[in-house]
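Handout, section B. The chain below has 90 residues.
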Amino acid sequence: MNKTIITVVGKDTVGIIARVCTYLADNRINILDISQTIVQGYFNMMMIVDTGGVEKQFGDMADELVVLGEEIGVVIKCQKEEIFDKMHRI
C-alpha cells in the first residue's frame, strides 16, 4: 500500500469535495481516511489515500492536484506518508 496525505485548504465553496473525490476515483486512488471541517467560512480537509493503483508518477499526480486546486480556488498539497511522518516527528 502506498499511503499519501492530501490536504485541501481554502475559502468554502460548493463542490470542493466532489471535485477532489472525482479526481481520486478517476485515477484509482482509494480514500482510507478523511477529515473535513469548515471554520468561519474556511474549508479544511485532510485525507489519507492509497495511491497503489495509480498509473502516473507521484509528481504528475501532485501537479495535477495543484492545478485542480487552482481551478476550484483552494490549495491542494500531497505528501507521501513517510515524508509526512518524518516532518511531524517530535
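Note. The mean pLDDT is 92. Compare this with the example in section A.
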